[in-house]
Amino acid sequence: MEKLLAQLIRLYLMPGQATGQHPAATPLVSDDGLTRAIVIDFPRAAGDESGHWVQLCEVANTLQEKLGFPAPGVSVTGADAFRLWLSLREPVPVADVRRFLSLLRSAWFPELPLHASSTVELPPCLHGATGKWAAFIHPGMGASFAGEEGLDIAPPAAAQLAFLEGLESIAPAQFEEAMGAMHRPRETAPLQAPLAAPPDGLLLKDATLEDIVRHLHALGIEPTFRHVLPGHA
After folding, report:
1. How far apart are CA 131 and CA 157, in angstroms?
2. Phi and psi at residue 129, in whole multiples of 5°?
């Protein structure tokens, strides 16, 4: 767990935030109003099991394709939502995060709230109300969790670590350039090409179970799937 915590610190936490407190109380904002994480919830709507996953994919793909950001982290909450995790290499004021999300909504997603969480549960952790586990997931597996956004049993720590080790942070220049590009009129704002192609294709491209096993084997991990996927019961 120490290696997993080290990755969470590398990517998302401010100094002094990695304490042994209950996961539901983990703050992402420092006392002076700075943060290194933009964590966006995509809750499931009543009567629509997969729409929130499609929304997450559209936002994640836009961040990579239009703004050149590195691939974000993706998690299930153990309840009824997916989460998108953006890592900032350097802390920024919370006001800048709010402005960034406001610009993102105005530019591409006027119908989505896109609010950043200031306090979050750090996966992997057990959701007290549902008895399901929150966990980081391979983006290609996301659609299989739509309608049941949690794991039945604690995820393998090695797989959680591997998902985080593959993530990179948004550089300060990238963040500033994205803010400037979205602030300019749409017809004149240049679209920045991604720095690198997202691994394993875009998030909307669902991977098969065999793809996930092959990916983890390539990382030297023997997967233990403890969530019964539709069609694999």
Report:
1. 18
2. -80, -35
User: Cα–chain-centroid distance for residue 24?
Assistant: 17
11 contacts 35 by C-beta, under 8 angstroms: no
Is residue 101 within 8 A of residue 63, CB to CB? The reply is no
Question: Taking a C-beta distance cutoff of 8 angstroms, is the pair 141, 122 a contact?
Answer: no
How many residues are present in the chain? 233
- Residue pair 81/43 in contact (Cβ under 8 Å)? The answer is yes
pTM for this prediction: 0.82
Task: Calculate the alpha carbon distances from 115 to 10, 37, 99 in Å.
Answer: 23, 12, 11
Question: Helix (H) and strand (E) counts for the chain?
Answer: 7, 7
193-233 tens-digit pLDDT:
444 444 444 555 445 556 555 655 655 555 544 444 444 43
- Residues forming beta bridges with residue 41, ordered by sequence position: 83
**Dihedrals φ, ψ of 134, to 5°?**
-80, 145
Task: Name which of 170, 135, 175 is nearest 156 in CA terms.
Answer: 135
